[in-house]
Write a structure and sequence with these properties.
Elements lengths: L5 E2 L1 H4 L10 E7 L8 E6 L2 E7 L5 E5 L13 E2 L4 E2 L6 E2 L6 E3 L18 E2 L1 E4 L2 E6 L25 E9 L3 H9 L4 H4 L13 E9 L2 E7 L6 H5 L7 E8 L3 E8 L2 E13 L2 E10 L8 H27 L6 E2 L5 H15 L10 E6 L1
Antiparallel strand pairs: 1-20, 2-12, 3-4, 4-5, 5-10, 6-7, 7-8, 8-9, 11-12, 13-19, 14-15, 14-21, 15-16, 16-17, 17-18, 18-19
Length: about 350
Amino acid sequence: MVTDLVQLGAGAARPPAELIFGDWYPALRARELRVGKMTKTMLLGVPLVLGRKKDGKIFAMRDLCPHRGIPLSAGWFDGETVQCKYHGWRFEPCSGQCVEIPSLTQFETLDPTKIYAGAYPCEERDGYAWVYLPEPGTGRVGDALPAVPELPKFSQRFRSAHLVADLPCNVDHGIIGLMDPAHGPFVHQAWWWRSRASIHEKEKHFEPIPQGFRMSAHAPSGNSAPYKLLGVYGEPITTTIDFVLPNRRYETIRCGDKWFSSLTTVTPVTPSTCRIDVIAAWNIFYAVPFVTSIATFFGARFVRQDQQTMIEQAEGLRFHPGLMLIDDADKPAKWYFGLKQARLKGSGEHPLSGPVTLHWRS
């Protein structure tokens, strides 16, 4: 029976989404950043140019010269400073401070060092360049920032892999698709994962955590072949899944001293498009030859299935249909919208008042 039916309405189906600033987002793979080279990207509709200085530190600047608005990426980067192509203004990229205006003469009193281009905190973590984007109009950011997100790891030796996929939908559709527990047997049909015939009822326990919610530690789904492989270790298997605003899904699987963890982010590129990034690490089957290549192959197929579904959904969303969320399978999506609105408003209660148990079939 459908209970607590939520009509999202035509407005929610429109391409743009309200975006959460004041947090860290993965801009691109850190390996793309080389000394003396600049790389363009976009986050939350903000044009960015990133690079790596000679000392190895990475930077992220707003890709606009504060003088006349030309993209800084059209200019030059010598490993120390970024120079604008239009008038040669030169900037220290980590701070954005202007260090030279070539057109100035001895008769002018303008101090170039009091001029700043847009620059954002940028840190390298888990193979990504993470950029902190403050609320528009807040000026230069201080040092009191939240911690840079990091993938949990449980041993010194592990293997890892990265995946990425662009989605033609806004971040809200990307995120509720990411946390949707009922699409697996349909979107991810495969001999090595699930089939429609494997659907059965499930019971999961959830609890509130700061800025998110947790699917409490539980035995993983018995109808997923990859989890069955862990049975060779003869240890109990548990899975914990956390969702944390603005866009992060952490999954940890433990089997004795063996483990697998992943961090999946759905990052808004613009108000109407987003991107999935996945970093996974594990020490399971560590000695198996080509295990990273095998995991990347199957993981990429899994992500492509989600990507194709989002492409097809985008076709329908062009007509602005009214949408709905049902209980219990769509309850996490409701929690996400509640958490997001509380974050955007700066007030409001957590949508989970305490632990809750949900049931669905998948």
